[in-house]
Write a structure and sequence with these properties.
Length: 83
């Protein structure tokens, strides 16, 4: 980048910084959202709740299906090619 280009682009620096920060936040949020560890932990806690009698079979089945669907989504996302 030349001196003239740098001077002319200077007013856009706050915008570029804001876009960079937004991209970093999005990346961190996606990493957290697509982390399978919390879903697996929720499955363990759900099974514990069933075994301790805090929830019934119907509630267990419904919530287990939701968590397994979420885990499938995460797995598919990790296998998908990145652009």
């Amino acid at each position: 980048m030349g001196l003239l280009t740098g001077i002319l682009a200077l007013p856009l620096a706050p915008l570029r910084t804001t876009l960079w920060a937004a991209e970093q936040l999005q990346s961190a949020a996606e990493a957290q959202y697509y982390d399978p560890a919390p879903v697996r932990q929720a499955l363990v806690e759900l099974e514990r709740a069933l075994l301790e009698g805090r929830i019934g079979e119907d509630e267990y089945d419904r919530r287990e299906d939701e968590l397994l669907d979420r885990l499938d989504e995460i797995t598919a996302r990790r296998r998908a090619p990145r652009p």
